[in-house]
Specification:
CATH architecture: Beta Barrel
CATH topology: Sortase, Chain: A
Largest sheet: 8 strands, mixed, barrel
Low-confidence stretches: 75-122
Strand order of the largest sheet: 1-2-3-4-7-8-6-5
Number of strands: 8
Mean pLDDT: 79
Oligomer: single chain
Number of helices: 1
CATH class: Mainly Beta
Helix content: 10-25%
Shape: elongated
CATH superfamily: Sortase
Number of domains: 1
Length: about 280
């Protein structure tokens, strides 16, 4: 009779635990790579693809406005008079809301100055446009910028389309008061990306159906808070940094965007006055 020899089944022990840990680490590494690729694709979409889409859309809108201005029965616009056109540069910002108590102005100043090489046009009143609707073209020669201006500063309906937005409650182009605009500095067409390159004396033009208003840059506020509503007041003056701004009534232009780049912490402000 054979002796019964017990068989001992050994556990996997340390080797098994190590194999399990390696599997967990491998799965975590795969997950990290996958998440990283998704984030990278989102960044590419946000920074590159949205820029292409918004920039192309903004260019098309400028041409559509110019065609409408020279349509039969319409007042001839700047395009029909042989003005030179420059391709837009590239930028973003949602900036302070209009100050309480500010009222829109629709009366334009007569005899607004025109840019060099363009005849002076009689400036009539600019009617209050519909909400989120484009109605003007902003041109900044130093930046090679040409971008539509729409009523309102809603992100989805205006700014994210690559347009520049007009603050409701501020003056219209050429009018007494403050014609205040906001635009993205990064992503979505980034029309104001290089706003910091503007210098005192630079000209900025605004075309509105056969009328051209030329503003001359006078002052720059490099940084202020997002709640500094004084910068878009009828007589613009920073309430955060009172040494920046104006003290007398006039016809002003205000351009606002985010700063530093790729953040929305502060606001960069450029002011100009109407060239009479």
């Amino acid at each position: 009779m054979r002796d019964h020899i017990p068989v001992v089944v050994r556990g996997r022990g340390r080797r098994g635990r190590r194999a399990g840990l390696a599997g967990v680490l491998w799965a975590a590494a795969e997950l990290t790579v996958t998440v990283g690729m998704v984030v990278l694709l989102l960044v590419v979409h946000q920074v590159w693809w949205t820029n292409r889409q918004a920039l192309a859309g903004a260019r098309d809108e400028v041409r559509a406005l110019e065609r409408a201005w020279v349509a039969p029965g319409a007042t001839p616009g700047p395009e029909s008079e042989g003005d030179a056109r420059e391709e837009p540069g590239a930028q973003g910002a949602v900036v302070p809301s209009a100050p309480a108590g500010a009222r829109p102005s629709s009366s334009a100043s007569a005899g607004a100055g025109a840019s060099a090489g363009s005849p002076t046009r009689a400036a009539g009143p600019v009617a209050e446009p519909g909400r989120d609707r484009s109605y003007a073209v902003l041109r900044i020669p130093r930046l090679g910028l040409e971008v539509p201006v729409a009523q309102g500063v809603d992100k989805k309906a205006v700014l994210d389309k690559g347009y520049v937005g007009h603050y409701p409650g501020t003056a219209q182009p050429g009018a007494e008061g403050n014609f205040a605009l906001a635009g993205h500095r990064n992503t979505h067409g980034e029309p104001f990306r290089y706003l910091n390159r503007l210098r005192v004396g630079d000209e900025v033009t605004v075309d509105v159906r056969g009328q051209r208003y030329t503003y001359v840059v006078g002052r720059v506020l490099p940084e202020t808070t997002a709640r500094d509503t004084g910068v878009i007041a009828p007589v613009p003056r920073s309430v955060v940094k009172p040494e920046y701004g104006y003290s007398a009534p006039g016809a002003y232009l205000t351009l606002t965007t985010c700063t530093p780049e790729y953040t929305s912490t502060y606001r960069l402000v450029v002011w100009g006055t109407l060239k009479r």
